[in-house]
Amino acid sequence: MAKFYITTPIYYVNGLPHIGAAYTSIAADVLARYHRARGDDVHFLMGTDENAQKNVEAALKSIPSPQSSPEGVEDGPSERRPRGGKGEGETQEIVQKYVDAMAAKWQETWDELGLTNDDFIRTTEPRHIKYVEKFWRKVEAKGDIYKSVYEGLYCTGCEAYKTESELIDGKCPDHMRVPKKLSEENYFFRLSRYRDALLKHIDEHPEFIQPEARRNEIVAYIRDHAVDFSISRKNLEWGIAVPGDPAQTIYVWFDALLNYISAVTPSPGFQPSSPSGRGEGEGWWPADLHLVGKDIIKFHCAYWPAMLMSAGLPLPRTVFAHGFFTVDGQKMSKTLGNVIDPVALARKYGNDVLRYYLLRDFAFGEDGDFSEVRLRARYNGELANGLGNLVARVLTMVEKYADGVIHNPTQPPLILRGGDRLVPPLKVRGGEGELWSQYESYIAHYQLDRALDTVWQYMSELDRYIDETQPWQLAKSGKERLFAVLYTLAEGLRHIAWMLIPFMPETARNIFDQLGLGTAEVKKSFKDAQKWGGLKSGVKIERGDSLFPRLA
Ligand code: MSP
């Protein structure tokens, strides 16, 4: 059984989940579900990045005074920070309480959106902190950590140093704030030592950084700018202490990237689930896919692989960076008040509709623009009039002309002539041919929007097939041809539902139910499900409510 270990970025908890984070997470969920449907051994990891200074700022801002409870944060048990975590004082308590409450909210959001992550890692957990310490020591022993004075402009928004040339009017263009001037003695990581090895790896593994445009960007960055970077900060009250030097705190990105391994590594009191047949522990690593936004590829495609090389660990197979979207043409920001809440949208339209819109409207890997107006247009055009209508149309005919029973004709499907077009049943059947291979090839290349497009094209074909074969006419002259056509249509719906499992899981189940297949169908393997003829003769359909009632 192939293993598939997939991760999303771990998100900062200085705010509630917004649609950008939901986009990455939903896309990862689609891929995780797809691989599970194929029968792969899947581990899907999500989590929260809690040791960042921006979380500290948010925590302190959220309370009127240190005595009272943070706004919107319920009093709850606050785990004691494990050894290695820094700051014993008041700030630490406030921040811990804040991150506890926020992490719970992030988890709730993903649960409400129906995401199927197998684990959720918080970087304040002992299993993570222990691993970070162990890793630091390894890299230190390799001679890749040294102390030096650093002077630079630090943007807490990015949690990174900025060069003068990256600033606009002295401000970080992404966060519109003036970075802090820092000058202190820090620990550095010898990234420059790995420059050639990184370029070689990227060159020899075209699948490592995708899409291609991002690969070119990273190659240029590594070639021209990859210098040693600071991996600690002095006198911070929050974060993981540098082993052996508690006055220094490990740089939050150095710590955060390690979540991808800490979550699958056993430590005292923690045993990760292991992929079947692979033994305990580190069997999940290396990750098969890190899904990230394009804003953080430098960290994932330069810093991270160099850190792994230093520690002598294998590199992830692929880092795929998707694009960023604006909202109605504008950058999403709290100041503009256009931050979209994914939960509110999902409650209004349903989880599947949100998933469909996000994955269909944006070419995966490219930038896009989010618009609720377009979401509604796609809903009415493609879900209500498209999918919902096709399902209702087919099942109504099965009820009307075949007493609601599927008949699987024994002879090979008929070649039917409709209008002036010959309808090749094999094309309509799709089952073993083109349709599935196209769909799977798109997913293998992360072209999720195109995979959906393939399904919708197939729906149009089935619609045309109805128009051309005219079952209502066939019903007047014997049952044989009629049943063959109805079977082709109903079996076509079964294939559509299978292709929708990763994208619209609730809808897929609903279609199975309406086809009279129920939960037994989803227990099949993807391979068996792809064969033509899965619908058995004699099955009674159970036509239900319309899948997507039209929006006014
Ligand atoms: N904590 C780091 C990641 C550490 S991973 C080891 C971080 N967190 S974040 O909360 O800022 O999340 C950034 C990610 O959120 C992006 O990479 C992307 O996946 C997602 N997005 C945030 N805004 C987005 C858009 N406007 N559009 C698309 N994705 C967006 O960076």
From TrEMBL:
Primary subcellular site in the record, as a coarse category: cytoplasm
Cofactor(s) demanded: Zn(2+)
Region feature (Disordered): 61-91
Ranges of residues in domain Methionyl/Leucyl tRNA synthetase: 5-67, 166-395
One Pfam family this sequence matches: Anticodon_1
Subcellular location: Cytoplasm
Record EC number: 6.1.1.10
CDD domains: Anticodon_Ia_Met (cd07957), MetRS_core (cd00814)
Binding-site residues, Zn(2+): C155, C158, C172, H175
Position of the signal peptide: none
Motif range ('KMSKS' region): 331-335
Catalytic function, reaction form: tRNA(Met) + L-methionine + ATP = L-methionyl-tRNA(Met) + AMP + diphosphate
Domain Methionyl/Valyl/Leucyl/Isoleucyl-tRNA synthetase anticodon-binding: from-to ranges: 437-520
GO BP of this protein: methionyl-tRNA aminoacylation
InterPro entries hit by this protein: Anticodon_Met (IPR041872), M/V/L/I-tRNA-synth_anticd-bd (IPR013155), Met-tRNA_synth_2 (IPR023457), Methionyl/Leucyl_tRNA_Synth (IPR015413), MetRS_core (IPR033911), Rossmann-like_a/b/a_fold (IPR014729), tRNAsynth_Ia_anticodon-bd (IPR009080)
Bias kind Basic and acidic residues: ranges: 77-89
Keywords carried by this UniProt record: Aminoacyl-tRNA synthetase, ATP-binding, Cytoplasm, Ligase, Metal-binding, Nucleotide-binding, Protein biosynthesis, Zinc
Family as reported in the entry's similarity comment: Belongs to the class-I aminoacyl-tRNA synthetase family. MetG type 2A subfamily.
Oligomer and partners: Monomer.
Function of the molecule: Is required not only for elongation of protein synthesis but also for the initiation of all mRNA translation through initiator tRNA(fMet) aminoacylation.
Protein name: Methionine--tRNA ligase
UniProt source species: Candidatus Uhrbacteria bacterium RIFCSPLOWO2_01_FULL_47_24
Name of the coding gene: metG
